Structure formats: C-alpha cells, structure tokens
TrEMBL record, chain A:
<feature type="signal peptide">
    <location>
        <begin position="1"/>
        <end position="23"/>
    </location>
</feature>
<dbReference type="InterPro" id="IPR011042">
    <property type="entry name" value="6-blade_b-propeller_TolB-like"/>
</dbReference>
<keyword id="KW-0732">Signal</keyword>
<dbReference type="Pfam" id="PF17170">
    <property type="entry name" value="DUF5128"/>
</dbReference>
<protein>
    <recommendedName>
        <fullName>6-bladed beta-propeller protein</fullName>
    </recommendedName>
</protein>
UniProtKB/TrEMBL annotation, chain B:
<feature type="signal peptide">
    <location>
        <begin position="1"/>
        <end position="21"/>
    </location>
</feature>
<protein>
    <submittedName>
        <fullName>Carboxypeptidase regulatory-like domain-containing protein</fullName>
    </submittedName>
</protein>
<dbReference type="Pfam" id="PF13620">
    <property type="entry name" value="CarboxypepD_reg"/>
</dbReference>
<keyword id="KW-0121">Carboxypeptidase</keyword>
<keyword id="KW-0378">Hydrolase</keyword>
<dbReference type="GO" id="GO:0030246">
    <property type="term" value="F:carbohydrate binding"/>
</dbReference>
<dbReference type="InterPro" id="IPR013784">
    <property type="entry name" value="Carb-bd-like_fold"/>
</dbReference>
<keyword id="KW-0645">Protease</keyword>
<keyword id="KW-0732">Signal</keyword>
C-alpha cells in the first residue's frame, strides 16, 4: 500500500522548467533543535474526554449509489466531505452530517477516442479557481474538473499544476514535494521546494537522486504535514528528525532518541548492505521504528506517529507528547468515556485503518479518522450496557444500518493545551 | 417407515439437547465484577487474565478483561471462600481472597489496581495463571490445572472452561472451531487430533497456544490453530499399543504399535495379524486405529463386514518423518522427508454364485449361472517416500513409490447357460492356477517457482514436473476349460493351456508451464486484467510384452504359435498449448471480495503409436492429431465474516486412442463365453465435457453450513463400444466398433450443517448422487441404446452430548435402473440401508457401544433380501493410567451378514452372492505404554 503511494508521488514528479527567477538550495537552521528521549512503551493512557473537547461520529449514508469500500483520502470543503475510495475508484461527496450528495466515478469521467485507456480515477485534489472550488480528478489520460455538485467542467493535460502542494495562509508561498529545479541546462531534484507565487523565487531542500525510488526501497508516510496556518512538519525516510517548515525557512525542530531495541543502525542509510534489503532488515528486527510519520504540534501537544510496518498490537506507535510536562500518552490506551458514547475513537486493536493511514485529515483544528461498519457494530456490541443514549446520527445508524453499511467518520477536536 | 423413525430420532436428539441444557442447578448464584486498572500508566488493562479459584485451588472459571478492562463472572457460589487472581505480562500478580456475602448476588470490586513488575526486584514468586494472553495468542498453562498424574492433554482440555472437546474430535474455544492442531508447531503423526490429545500426558505439556491465522484484514473470520507446546526435554517420547484377542470360531487378532518422536524425527513401527477383516490397505489407517483412544463417542474401529471372502492377514510396517528444519515456523522454509514401508500378507478364500440375465433380442433372453471358488495368497511390499524442500519462492517436491507383490491363485468355476425357454444349452467349467510377480516403481519430481512479493521482478513463476513409472509383470498361469454344447456335440471344446507372460512398461511424463506472460513482457502494466500462459505436456510410453503359450496336446505341452508373441509399443503423446485469461475483481473493504477468471486454452494433441510384433498384422503405426481446447471459469465470492463461495466451470476435450488390444488382439479361444476380436478401422474416442463445481462454506464460528455440488455432462464421439454376437449357448464374440450417441450426466451433492448447543452438538449431513448415461451397443447386429440411471441418497445425523453420549443414525437409498428400448427390457434394483450406532461412557473407565445396520435389497428380478448386522462392545480400562484395557465384543449378533452384489450392465442384470465373515465373539486385552521426556513418570 505504501509502495503504491510512492508510485503516485512518482507520477506527480514535477519539473519547474519555466522558472526564471532566483532559485537556490535552502539552508536548514538547526540552532533550536530539541532532543526528545521517548520510550513508546512507557506511554500512559487517558480518558477520551481528557484529550478531546469534542468527539463526533458521522456515519456516511448507505444507498445503492453511495455504497463504497473505505476512505483512502478525505478532504473537507465547507460543509462537505470529499472521499476517494480505491475499491470503487470513485470520489464521493457527502454533507458533514453524512448525507450522500453525489459521486464522480468512471461513468462520469470522459474518455476520448485518442485516449490510451478508459478513464478511471487515480485520486483527486481540490482546486480553487477564482472563488470557486473544483474537484480535480486524476485519470491516466488527463485531469478532469468537476463542480462539487458532480458536474463536469473541463479537462486538461497539465498534470504539473495539480501535483500535491500546500500553501500557508497570508502568504504567497506554496510547498511542493519531489520537485525539480532547473538552472540553465541542469536540473536538480529536491525532496521539498518552496515557491513564492509572486516573485517566483524557489528554495529547494534535501537534494535527491533523480532515480531515488528506483535505486532503493522506501517505506514511510507522506513527508509533509501541515498543522497550522503557517507551519508544517517535514521528515526524511529512515530518519528520526522532524523539521519545521514555514514560508520563510526550514528548521530542525526535534531530534528523537528511542530505546536501543527500537533504533535503526547508525549506518542504515549509508551502508550499501541495506540497499534494497530494507524489508528483510525490518522483518528480522520487527520492533525497529524506521522513521517518523505524519506528526502535528497542537498547542504544547506533539502528536507523533512512529513508522513500523508490522502489526504488533502491543507496540505503541501513535503517541501524544506534551512538550511542557513531558507526559507521554498513547492513542491505543485512550479509554472511551461518555464523550465518545463509550466507543473507541479509532479502530486500533480491531482493524488497521488507523494504523495504515493515521489521521485522514487535520483541518480547522480537528482530526478526522474513520472506521468500518463492521468495527462500529462490533464496538457497540462490546460496550453493551454502558450507555443507551447515542447522538441522533449514530442512533439512526444503529437502527437502519448493519455490518455492511458505509464507514463512519470520526471527528476529534483536541484540547488546545 | 424408516424415514419416520429417523425423523423421530433427530427430534429426540434435539429434545435431549435442550433438556440437558436446562439441567443447570437452580441454587442461587452470585456475580463478581470489576475493572483492572494500571494506575501508574493510567489505563485499563485490556487482556489481563482474571481467574476464580475454589478454596482447594481448582479453577472455576477464567476470563480476559475486555476492551474496557472489565471482567464479570456469573454462576459463582455464595458465601463460599473464593480466590481471585489477576495477572498480565509485565505486572505483579494480584491475589485476592473474596466471598460473596450471604444474601447478596453481586460483588462489585470496582477498580482493581495492578502494578507493573519492578525488574530490579529479585526472585518474585510468580504463580502461573491458568491462561494468559500474549500478543494475540491465548495460552493455557498446564501447570495451573491440578489433575492426576496420568491425565492426558484431552483430560486437561476438558477441565479448561470455555473449551469443548467434542465427540468427533473437534475442539472449540468459546464456540469457535480449532481448524488445526499441532505439537511444537508440527503435525503430529499424520495430523489426527485424537492421537495427540489422547497420548500426550498432561505432565509433558507446558502450555497450549491458541491463535487465529485468518487474514488480518478480516478480524471476525475464524481460523484457529492450537499448538501444544511441550516442556523442554519432553519432546522426546514414545507411545503405542500391544493387544491380543481371541474369540469364537478360533478368530484371533494381534496388534503391536510403537511411536517414537524427537524434535526432528517421528517414527512409528507397527504390526497386526488377524482373521477378522481388520487389514487396511495403508499404514496410516492402521496407525490411526492402533494408538490409545480416549473414551470417545465415535464408532470404534471394527471388522469390515462388507469385505467379501474369508481373509487372514498379517501386516507390518514403519513410518517416519524427518524435519531438517525443526525450528522453522514459516511454511516457505521447510525441508522434510517422510517415508513408509508396509508389508501385507493376505490369505483369502472366496465362494460366490451369480446369475446374469442378458437380453439379446426383443423377448429373447439368456440366463447364465456361475459358481466360483478361489483361494489367493499374496505378499506385498510397499515403500513410499516424499521429500519436500521449500525455500522462499522455490518449492521442490520429490516422491517415490516402490511396490512389489508376489502371489498365487487357484480358482475353479462352473458355469452354465439357459435359453429363453429355460432349456440348458451349454456348460463351461474351468480350473485355473496362477502365480505372479508384479513390480512397480514411480518417481515424481516437481518444481515450482513463485515470486509475487517482489513487484519489480518481471519473471514471476514457473512450473515444471517430471514423472517416470516403470512396471514389470510376470505371470505364470494354467487354465483347463471344458465347454459342452448341449444342443450340438460338435461344438464341444477342451483346453489345457499354459501362459507365461512377461510385460514391461516404461512411461515418462514431462510438463512445463510458464504462467504470467503479461508481467514478463509488459511488467506491472494492468492490460485490463488479461494474462497469458504457455504450457506443454509430453508423454513417452514404451511397452514390451512377451507371451509364451503352450497347449496340452497328445500328452505333452506344445507351443501355441498363434498366441506366443513378442509385442513392442511406443507411444509419443505431445500437447503444446497457449492460454489467455482475463480476471475481474470486485472488492469492497470489510464487506466482500469477489473475483472471476476466464481462461481459454488452445492446445493440440499429437499422438503417435508404433507397434512392432512377431505377428505382421499387429505391426501398426497410427497418428492421431486433435485440437483439444479447454475453457475454464473460476469465481470466488468471499463475504467478510460470513461465508465463502466458489464456482468452477470447465469445458474440456479428452482423446482416447485405441490400443493395440482393441485394434488387433490375439484372440484366446479358451473362454468361449467371451471371445475378444479387434477392429483395425477403430478411430480415436473424443470426449467433450462440461464440469461444474460449486461449494459454500460458512466462516462463522458456530452453526456452520457447508455444501458442495458437482455436476458433469459429456458427449463421446466415436465411442469404442462392444458389438457382441451371442448364440444360444451363450457363446459370445465381442467385436469393437465406433459409435456415436454416448452421453452422460452426473450430479453429486453434499450438505453438512451443524448446530451447537451449550453442552451438545447436532450434525446433519446429506449426500446425493445421480448418474445417467446413454450407452450405444450392438447385440447380434442390432443397434441399441442402453439407458442407465443410478441414484444414491443418504442422510446422516450425529448427536453428541459432551464426551458422554454419542448417537448416530443414517438412512440410505440407492436405485439402479437400466432400460433398453430396442429390446423392450428394463432392470431395476433398490437398496435401503438404515443404521444406528450409540456409545455411552458410564465412567472414564467403562463404556458400552453398539451399532446396527439394516439392509434391504429389492431387485426387479429375483427375491428381496433383508439382513441386519448388529454389533456390541463393552470396554473396561484399568491400572492407574488407564493404560490397560479389556474389551468384550460381540459381532454380527444376529448372524445375518451377507454379501449381495447386484449390478446392471448395458443389456444385462447380474445378482451375485459371496461368502463373508459372520458372527463371532471376542475378548481382547490391550496395553498402551506411554512415555514423554527422559524423566517422565512412566506409566
């Protein structure tokens, strides 16, 4: 699955050839680095209501048309949920109360005679043009535009424009991963590039071999996670450092030290014996943390995801570290209480949606995750007798749905401590 | 009538199921509940082991705390001292003495605080909890259960709450069936659960590990494995049996079996001798039935009353498994050798009578009677070995089988024929004597390469196999025959002929398959689910036959120059093919997974047959060239957590080339009732068939339904059929010819459904088969179709109550019908079998069992035959370890056993009876030695 993500990123490799403005390789400021010693197994538990202000379950409506597998991508636009489902190769639109609105699947995509393949969705992004937001759907042939109501608008061959990017509020700077910068005849690939849309100034960080993905195997998450209007975290593969990226600069924020049993060998990156043998190494050393996944800083709380490709339920990988008190909490030990109607807030320990994907989104200071109807109905059974009052959306879901219904989105609003 | 009785019986079973469930004592009981909490880390413990003991340290019940850290025990005694233990890996064990106060029914302990173990503390006395939960594995610790010193693993499992060992050997954990039982991660002596459960002493066991191997994406599917982990040093063991029995009519049986096991080696040595039809054909059946049996509810291993003739047998053998990688747990890292040797000596005498009615024309039938006696002795040696080597993507299997048999046979038969008017027309009496030596050797090597893990590699898989088989048959035979034509003396014939035949056969088969052509040429491109495969099959056969035949003429044996012959046949059979397949997938996470694969194979079969003989008319070369396409459709429907269904449909073409014995045989004229002639104009038979298989099985944990339906229909073009000329004396000359119009359709089905109640289980099974065929044939030049229709249906219900009582009832009905419209004849036979068996264990030491089956045979010709076989056994076990046993058996109590075989042919109906084993009583003494580990307590 993770390899698949890489393929997508690879497809989206962009080349900023039209750049004429000033471009340079960025310098990383490491003067404010904080070293954290973390033993994941020592993490404590807490009640759900101690961590979150609000927990909301939004079951997604199940009809013949809206039935889908699970959520591989989630985007939030106003009061709408946009979901990409790999099973049905569709982008589905629901209201934030779970009501089904429309979907864009193969039937709506346009295929022309000249196209090599029949159009299917390979993913989507939200694009703002003027004041209107569009769903831009990638197909093998082109990128097709739809309104949020599901109506076709246009299509374009320009894949570059839609490569994954992030922008900060009140700034003209956008961030792009895996990007080439052209200087004269030479072009250099960087892991991450910041571009000022006005001045066209570009700064690249972490120079990379153009055949990066061919020469070795890389296991990890998306390298960039934005956690507020002006900051994002960036990580490298097989590295225990977390960088803070702003419109102006990149700085080394945290350096982690884990217990020896969880730590990669020092020469893991440099020693050629590990090249293309990464998986074999992980297999032999199942407890190693092989990198830092999507992480967020919310107030003083550092939400951390430690990468490990195995499924040992006892290994704690999703943690909350309080940078003030140094208290360490583990997600899998969160105790459901009345705030969550005594239902778990993730499916960890039962299924693997949370473990595989982490949070689906963090927007407007809220985390989004999901689990299947199978998980929800099983959790309800297991918590029998704890409460007989569920919020209306859930109450209705339990009445009308079953184990084969559509998944449930869980919205968690963390306390801003 | 019987059906009604059966229905009643199954209702009775259901009824008892409920009544047993209702017999729980009505005394007031109490409940204890609480939450296990680690206050240091501030969380609840989700899978801590919580157990409740009585004052005498016996476990009443245990639980794992749930997702909320909670535990709750009901049905506990009130006002009695109890002990509550809570343990978890990495924590100090809590022990609390508690009592539910009189007058209360609920004791809420609220938060029970458990403290992490301080690693610096020296020597913490750790009491082992009865169960613990260790990273997805439920472990049952043998030491926590107090049992007497000779208890077995089965006894232990019966003591563990929430685990049930069922009468049929199935184990369930909280109602979920354990699909596989291993000992130290390996199959134990052939994989029969009972061998392991009833022979391994509880004291040799460290723990039982129970885990689910189902796909991690399907958390509610059930595929439990139970592994018996032996204590260190106890993985060296032996167990076995010695037994002797003597009975009425001088019947006897002796048995001896010893099984040794070390971490790398498992070895069994076995021998048996008896005259009561307990002589299995393979060593595994014998071993399975010779080890210690707990007091179960299944029908015992008993005399096979269906076997015909009177048989005395001696068997002996050995079997071994050697693991070169004893510690490997991965299926793809395995290297093991298994080998077995089996010797079987059999002496049998058979007496049989048969009557055959053959229709030769409308309203013209012939009646043939025959009575035969024969006696046979044979010595057979068989040696098999299999070597498996699996390493990552490579898989190599080598197997060998060597078989040699030496025997002699003498037989005599008296046969006669009557015409339509009932007049005796001819007799044919013969005496024969033969001795033979057959030797067969087969070797098979297959190699398989599969690498679907490395997505970058284009070369994904390869299959190759090589088979060679050699056989050598020597036969020395004398036949003395006298044919008397009672209507015309001139046709009388007498023969005294000696046959010396020696045939050698060498056959080699090579196959090669190169699947996944798509990835070789197009890498990981999808190509809309299309893929291709190249296959090839080459069969080379070489046959040599030397026949030396002599006739007794004028006082001495003289060579028969017609039948004495040397014949060599070489056959090359080559089938190259190319397949194109397309696969459709449909997946909805956590809901279902469906796929459909359609595969079309175009193949050409080229057969080249070359015969060289001393007889010039047998020097025949033939070539057959046919297009043999195959189409197959495979569909899978997997509904997460509920059921799985598979559908397979295939269309195939099979070519059968006529052999030299069909084209141009040397006709032996001794048997005038059957003279075989050839036909040089025979063409190859081409069978086109459609085969459909559908099965369904539940992946739920209880009350599972399973069914399987198989149907096959085909048309044979150029079917090689008999064209028989029969005269009034029943002399037959059979010519072969091609005919069209042979059609068939077969349907087979199998349904099983089980119902589990609290302490009992009911299983229902239904088996059905329907076969229809339309066979063309010629009788005295009259072309005729024989329509044959056979059915077989049976229902079976099994009821078990704990390990105390087992009842089984079954009803079967079979019909055979043959109709020849051109001859205006039809034959019919209906057979009914009803059987009941029951088993009741009074104590662990004493049990009674009995079984009876009623047989009713109702042919359209001849009389209805009824007989019943009733058997009963009483078993008493003694000594401390229940290692000694005395058993009294009474078999065929009603002395009614008969062997009646009715068969319907193309235009004939045969009724025959054979001599069989009948009533006997026997007393058997057995001793079961057992020892596990170097210093295990010896029993």
């Amino acid at each position: 699955m993770k390899r698949f993500k890489h393929c997508l990123c690879f497809l989206a490799l962009t080349c900023l050839s039209s750049l004429t403005a000033f471009s340079q390789e960025g310098v990383i400021d490491s003067s404010h680095v904080v070293t954290l010693r973390i033993d994941p197994q020592s993490a404590r538990g807490a009640a759900v209501s101690q961590i979150f202000d609000e927990v909301k379950f939004v079951p997604l409506e199940t009809t013949r048309e809206s039935l889908f597998g699970n959520i591989s991508e989630l985007k939030i636009s106003g009061n709408k949920f946009l979901i990409y489902d790999y099973d049905t190769k569709a982008v589905l639109v629901f209201t934030n109360e779970g009501k089904y609105l429309t979907k864009i699947d193969a039937a709506k995509l346009q295929t022309e005679k000249a196209d090599k393949e029949k159009a299917v969705t390979h993913g989507f992004t939200l694009v703002k043009e003027g004041n209107t937001e569009y769903i831009a759907v990638y197909t093998p042939n082109n990128v097709q535009y739809f309104t949020l109501e599901g109506n076709f608008v246009k299509k374009t061959k320009n894949f570059n424009y839609y490569s994954p990017k992030l922008s900060f509020a009140n700034s003209d700077v956008v961030i792009r991963p895996y990007t080439y910068i052209k200087k004269g005849k030479d072009s250099t690939q960087y892991s991450v590039v910041t571009i000022d849309k006005k001045t066209k100034d570009t700064v690249g960080y972490f120079k990379r071999d153009p055949k990066f993905f061919e020469k070795d195997d890389w296991y990890g998450d998306d390298p960039i996670t934005k956690y507020n209007d002006s900051e994002a975290f960036y990580t490298n593969y097989y590295d225990y450092r977390l960088y803070k990226l702003t419109a102006k600069k990149m700085e080394l924020a945290y350096k982690f030290i884990f217990p020896a049993i969880n730590t990669l060998p020092k020469d893991f990156i440099t020693n050629p014996i590990y090249v293309k043998k990464r998986f074999e190494y992980f297999e032999k050393n199942k407890k190693t943390i092989h990198g830092i996944g999507s992480s967020y800083l919310i107030g003083d709380q550092l939400y951390l995801k430690l990468s490990n490709i195995f499924w040992d339920k006892d290994q704690k990988k999703s943690l909350i570290y309080n940078t003030k008190t140094t208290e360490l909490l583990s997600f899998q030990d969160l105790e459901p209480d009345s705030l969550s109607s005594f239902l778990p807030v993730t499916d960890s320990g039962f299924a693997y949606d949370f473990e595989n994907r982490g949070f689906l989104a963090y927007e407007d200071k809220k985390f989004y995750t999901s689990y299947s109807a199978l998980a929800m109905f099983t959790f309800k059974e297991r918590s029998a007798g704890k409460t007989n009052k569920y919020p209306p959306l859930l109450e209705n879901y339990f009445k009308t749905g079953d184990r084969k219904s559509n998944p449930v989105i869980i919205i968690l609003k963390p306390k801003q401590i | 009538m019987r059906a009604h009785f059966l229905l009643l019986l199954s209702i009775f079973c259901l009824g008892t199921g409920y009544s047993f469930a209702q017999t729980t004592p009505p005394a007031p009981t109490g409940t204890i509940k609480g939450v296990v909490r680690d206050t240091v880390h501030n969380y609840v413990l989700k899978a801590a082991t919580v157990s409740i003991y009585k004052a005498d340290n016996t476990v009443i019940n245990y639980q794992l705390s749930n997702n909320y850290g909670e535990f709750k025990f009901s049905n506990l005694p009130i006002d009695k001292p109890l002990r509550l233990d809570i343990s978890n890996v990495g924590y100090q064990t809590i022990q609390k003495n508690i009592t539910i106060p009189k007058g209360q029914t609920l004791l809420d302990l609220k938060n029970v605080i458990i403290n992490p173990q301080d690693v610096n503390l020296q020597e913490v006395t750790v009491t082992v909890p009865p169960i613990s939960y260790n990273n997805d594995t439920l472990e049952i610790n043998a030491i926590a259960f107090k049992l007497d010193t000779n208890a077995t693993v089965e006894d232990l499992l019966k003591k563990v709450p929430n685990i049930t060992v069922w009468g049929d050997g199935i184990i369930t954990v909280n109602g979920r069936e354990v699909k596989q039982l291993t000992v130290n991660g390996k199959q134990f002596f052939g994989g029969d659960n009972k061998i392991a459960l009833q022979n391994i002493p509880k004291n040799a066991l460290e723990k039982i590990q129970i885990f689910n191997t189902a796909d991690r994406d399907k958390p509610l599917d059930s595929n439990l494995v139970a592994n018996l982990k032996l204590k260190k040093g106890k993985d060296r063991s032996y167990f076995g049996k010695i037994s002797a029995g003597y009975g009425t009519d001088k019947h006897y049986q002796f048995d001896g079996n010893l099984n040794f096991s070390t971490p790398k080696l498992q070895l069994s040595v076995i021998g048996a001798s008896n005259d009561i039809n307990k002589i299995p054909n393979d060593i595994n059946t014998l071993i399975r039935n010779s080890t210690y049996k707990g007091v179960g509810t299944s029908v015992e291993y008993q005399s096979d009353f269906r076997q015909t003739g009177l048989n005395k047998g001696n068997v002996a053998g050995a079997q071994m498994t050697y693991n070169f990688t004893p510690d490997s747990k991965d299926w793809n890292n395995k290297s093991s050798l298994t080998a077995d040797y089996y010797f079987k000596n059999l002496e049998s005498s058979n007496i049989g009578d048969s009557q055959t009615i053959t229709t030769i024309a409308d309203n013209n039938q012939l009646y043939a009677n025959s009575s035969t006696t024969s006696s046979n002795t044979s010595d057979r040696h068989r040696f098999n070995s299999i070597y498996n080597y699996y390493k990552k993507s490579h898989r190599l299997d080598l197997s060998e089988s060597f078989n040699t048999e030496k025997g002699d046979n003498s037989n005599s038969s008296i046969r006669s024929a009557q015409n339509n008017a009932g007049q005796l027309t001819s007799t044919n009496n013969s005496n024969g004597q033969s001795n033979y030596t057959n030797t067969d050797f087969t070797f098979r090597a297959s190699y398989n390469y599969q690498n679907y893990n490395n997505w970058k590699q284009r070369f994904k898989s390869l299959n190759a196999s090589y088979d060679v088989s050699m056989s050598n048959r020597n036969n020395d035979r004398t036949e003395i025959t006298a044919f008397r034509d009672l209507l015309n003396d001139a046709n009388n014939r007498d023969f005294n002929r000696k046959y010396l035949t020696d045939s050698k056969n060498l056959s080699q088969t090579m196959t090669l398959g190169l699947p996944n052509l798509k990835s070789i040429f197009f890498g990981n491109a999808n190509l809309s689910g299309f893929d291709a495969e190249i296959t090839g099959k080459l069969v080379l056969t070489n046959n040599q036959e030397h026949n030396f035949i002599e006739d007794f003429v004028n006082g001495n044996y003289q060579q028969n120059s017609y039948l004495s012959n040397n014949l060599k046949t070489n056959v090359t059979d080559f089938t190259p093919g190319i397949s194109v397949s397309k696969t459709f997938y449909k997946n909805l996470s956590n809901r279902y997974y469906k796929n459909l694969t359609i595969k079309v194979t175009a193949a050409q079969q080229v057969i080249n047959q070359d015969n060289k003989s001393d007889r010039s008319f047998q020097n025949i070369k033939r070539n057959y060239n046919n297009f043999v396409p195959t189409i197959s459709v495979n569909a899978l429907n997997l509904q997460t957590g509920s059921y799985q269904e598979n559908l397979m449909v295939s269309y195939r073409t099979d070519v059968q080339a006529p052999t030299i014995y069909q084209l141009a045989p040397l006709t032996d004229s001794t048997n005038l009732y059957n003279l075989q002639r050839g036909n040089l104009n025979l063409r190859e038979e081409i069978k086109r068939s459609i085969n459909i298989n559908f099965n369904h099985y539940d992946m739920k944990s209880k009350n599972t339904l399973y069914f399987n339906v198989y149907t096959s229909a085909g048309i044979v073009e150029n079917d090689i059929v008999d064209s028989t000329f029969i005269d009034e004396q029943n002399r037959r000359t059979v010519y072969l010819t091609n005919a069209n119009g042979n059609k068939y359709i077969n349907l087979m089905g199998d349904i099983r459904k089980s119902f589990k109640f609290k302490t009992s289980e009911l299983q229902l099974g239904f088996n059905t088969s329907f076969n229809f065929s339309k066979n063309p044939t010629y009788t005295n030049t009259l072309f005729n179709f024989s329509n044959n229709f056979n059915t077989n249906n049976s229902v079976k219900t099994t009821y078990t109550y704990k390990d105390k009582l087992g009842i089984e009832a079954s009803q079967g009905i079979s019909t055979n019908l043959a109709k020849q419209s051109a001859l205006g004849t039809s034959y019919k036979n209906i057979g009914l079998t009803t059987s009941f068996s029951g088993n009741y264990n009074f104590t662990k030491k004493f049990s009674l069992s009995s079984n009876i089956n009623f047989n009713n045979n109702n042919p359209s010709v001849g009389e209805t035959i009824n007989f019943a076989i009733w058997n009963a056994n009483a078993t008493y076990r003694f000594t401390k370890g229940n290692n000694a046993e005395v058993k009294f058996s009474a078999l065929d109590l009603l002395r009614q056993n008969k062997a009646i075989i009715n068969s319907v042919g193309v235009n004939s109906f045969t009724t025959s009876t054979k001599n069989v084993l009948q009533q006997y009583f026997m007393v058997t003494l057995s001793y079961y030695p057992r020892k596990f580990g170097a210093n295990a307590t010896k029993k």
